[in-house]
Amino acid sequence: MTDEYGHIPDAFYLSQSEIDELRKSKRELTEYAKDKLDKLRKMKEEATKREELYRDALQELDNLAVGDVESDDFMNAYLVIQTALKVALGEEDV
Fold it and tell me: Under 8 Å CB-to-CB from 65, ≥6 apart: which residues?
């Protein structure tokens, strides 16, 4: 026993099969993490696209509401759609 390499007398050593199993598990976890990360990126991309569409729709509704609209039905529909879009964007609670 030598102190030169910091050898610990009661240390345990892994067999080659245990080392191979750990390497295999690492690769599997790495692939799993890559797959999950790809899915999360796609979900974020889709959410960003939806948010842009919601914001565009909300802007168009606001543009329509600026005009003199007398119809109660139009205004009621406008308010329902506006609220739904704001809730979807997280700008307003239900």
Answer: 75, 78
| Paired tokens of 27 | 């690769």
How is residue 6 written in tokens?
């910091």
pLDDT value for 90:
81
Residues of the chain predicted below pLDDT 50: 1-2
Q: How many CB atoms lie within 10 A of CB 54?
A: 17
3-state secondary structure of 7: coil
Give the 3-state secondary structure of 30-80.
HHHHHHHHHHHHHHHHHHHHHHHHHHHHHHHHHHHHHCCCCCHHHHHHHHH
